[in-house]
Design a protein that fits this description.
The structure holds 2 protein chains of 2 kinds.
Chain A lengths: L8 H24 L3 H7 L18 H15 L4 H12 L13 H31 L7 H20 L1
Helix pairs in contact in A: 2-3
Chain B lengths: L1 H25 L20 E3 L5 H4 L2 E3 H4 L4 E6 L4 H17 L4 E7 L5 H11 L5 E4 L3 H5 L7 E5 L5 E6 L4 H12 L1
Parallel strand pairs in B: 3-4, 4-5
Antiparallel strand pairs in B: 1-2, 3-6, 6-7
Classes of the chains: A mainly alpha, B alpha/beta.
């Protein structure tokens, strides 16, 4: 059953496109009303209901509400630190994208530095060892090693001759 | 001996990474275990509109500060939230069991423009304890909510005893309410 006649399709599609454009335009206009600082501060806050998204980036309802709240606080004269403190007071350190350097959070800051230091030490030692090995003259051979190789060769030749 | 010494850092690294991997697997969903920042402190006040069926008893709005004085169970829910439907009958039964001794408050949140859906939710479970509408989710932010459902067990003086994230069961309710009444 054809609900629409062939001549009505273009009009229907045009109307749908217009509705979509208006909806997108309205959403964009709502975001444009916010100060760019809202998004800057929002990027320093984790979205409570999202996975790996900040308040500045997320389109979740709670993140949008938090952006409006940030805007209101900025309008009332609060600065970046005060806004972050407001959310930290309610959600704890969890809400901050950059956790403060104290307690267990210190590990987050220190472990990468320790890992880099360990890697530098290991690589330096390996390079030094390889350079020493490369620089050592070939004719310097441990006499005991030489004796062992000669003995093995003699044994090997002996086995081969016996076959 | 020298081979053992050479292999030791590799073995140690693999063991450390395996331990880290196992720790990640076994610790479950970390977001569910985050304790509230209000533990032992007064929970934020709120003043929210009530659903019609509770207005005869409480008036058009419910203000937390005005109902302090007995242990409270504050439950945040949303009409789109599956686990909220799971826990609602348990909350209603617990409310019937404890009567006036414990005040149950339901807060519909993170559910903008969904009053009709909220009303349907309340009617579906015949929730007889007061339910309010947090249309702009400000109370949810004030309480540091990570999602729904979350339930706050609050002492009579307004200090937070425990926050539970996820759907509550009868066991959890009786344990936590028992602790509030002690």
């Amino acid at each position: 059953m054809n609900v629409l006649r062939r001549t009505e399709w273009p009009y229907t599609l045009a109307l749908l496109a217009l509705v979509c454009a208006l909806a997108l335009g309205s959403a964009a206009a709502q975001e444009r009303e916010l100060d760019p600082r809202v998004f800057e501060i929002g990027r320093e806050l984790r979205c409570p209901t999202c996975v790996s998204e900040s308040v500045g980036e997320s389109n979740a309802a709670i993140a949008r509400e938090m952006r409006v709240l940030i805007q209101e606080q900025l309008d009332q004269g609060a600065n970046r630190a005060e806004v972050l403190a407001f959310f930290q007071e309610r959600y704890g350190d969890w809400i901050l994208q950059n956790p403060p350097m104290r307690g267990l959070n210190l590990l987050v800051w220190l472990l990468p530095i320790v890992a880099v230091l360990v890697a530098v030490v290991v690589i330096t030692r390996l390079l030094r060892r390889w350079r020493t090995a490369a620089e050592r003259p070939i004719d310097v051979v441990d006499p005991s090693d030489l004796d062992r190789v000669r003995a093995e060769l003699r044994g090997g030749l002996g086995d081969g001759a016996g076959r | 001996m020298s081979r053992v010494r050479r292999l030791l850092p590799v073995v140690a690294t693999v063991a450390a990474l395996s331990a880290l991997f196992l720790f990640g697997l076994l610790r479950g969903s970390p977001d569910r275990d985050i304790p509230s920042n209000f533990l032992g402190r007064e929970v934020p006040n709120f003043d929210l509109p009530l659903y019609e069926r509770y207005m005869s008893e409480f008036g058009p709005r419910l203000t937390l500060d005005e109902v302090l004085g007995r242990p409270m169970v504050i439950n945040f829910w949303a009409s789109w939230c599956g686990p909220c439907y799971e826990e609602a009958p348990h909350l209603q039964r617990a409310h019937e069991r404890y009567g006036d001794e414990v005040l149950f408050i339901g807060i519909q949140t993170q559910d903008r423009d969904a009053r009709a859906a909220g009303r349907a939710f309340i009617n579906q479970f015949g929730l007889s304890f007061p339910n309010v509408f947090d249309g702009d989710s400000r109370t949810s932010i004030a309480y540091g909510l990570f999602g729904v459902p979350e339930t706050f067990f609050v002492h009579a003086d307004g200090t937070l005893h425990h926050k539970y994230a996820g759907p509550v069961t009868e066991t959890i309710l009786s344990e936590q309410i028992g602790a509030l009444r002690r």
